[in-house]
UniProtKB/TrEMBL annotation:
This is RNA polymerase sigma factor. The keyword Transferase does not apply. Belongs to the sigma-70 factor family. ECF subfamily. Signal peptide: none annotated. SUPFAM superfamilies: Sigma2 domain of RNA polymerase sigma factors, Sigma3 and sigma4 domains of RNA polymerase sigma factors.
Length: 183
């Protein structure tokens, strides 16, 4: 099994390749700088998966905004580090990131409390899964995606290829239908 050889270019060669939008530029950029940029991002974001996503965003932004880079203003690496750093900071300041961390704390606490009380949420034991089977097929599918598989509304819409508004309407109608069984 042969290992892929890493590509290394001089900074001048890399800049020229990026300006000409050459494929080798992307490969060299990743091979030469991914570890360093990931290190910068990881110091700001402690979650490896999120840091990896920000690294990918960094390379995409570098590629799309390379025309704004100027050799007179500084070294290529410095410019890229600033992009990586700014994207990482934007991520931790984002509402999604903050909400995810808050939700994670709540989930961890609920799980801890359930373990202490020896209770576990099992919808099949409550009969909820049986009740879901009584719904219309399109409602049942959305309930399964959102509540049993953990999809967000947006992810469910993308998965099913239908508008977000339709997902929300069907979900609301399904919940109203299920409520009838508990009143």
């Amino acid at each position: 099994m042969s290992k892929k050889r890493k590509i290394s270019l001089s900074e001048e060669e890399l800049v020229l390749s990026l300006q000409h939008r050459e494929k080798i530029a992307v490969e060299a950029l990743y091979d030469m700088y991914s570890a360093s940029l990931f290190g910068v991002i990881s110091r700001i974001i402690n979650d490896t998966a999120i840091a990896e996503d920000v690294l990918q965003e960094t390379f995409v932004k570098i590629w799309h905004s390379f025309s704004s880079y100027s050799t007179e203003k500084g070294r290529l690496f410095t410019w890229m580090v600033n992009i990586a750093r700014n994207l990482a900071i934007d991520k931790i300041r984002s509402k999604d990131f903050k909400n995810q961390n808050k939700n994670q704390e709540i989930e961890n606490n609920v799980t801890f409390i359930d373990e202490q009380r020896n209770t576990v949420y099992k919808p099949e034991l409550m009969g909820v899964k049986d009740l879901v089977q009584t719904l219309k097929p399109e409602q049942k599918l959305i309930i399964e995606l959102v509540y049993f598989k953990g999809y967000t509304h947006v992810e469910a819409a993308e998965e099913l290829g239908i508008p977000l508004g339709t997902i929300k309407t069907r979900l609301r109608m399904a919940i109203q239908e299920l409520r009838k069984h508990f009143n």
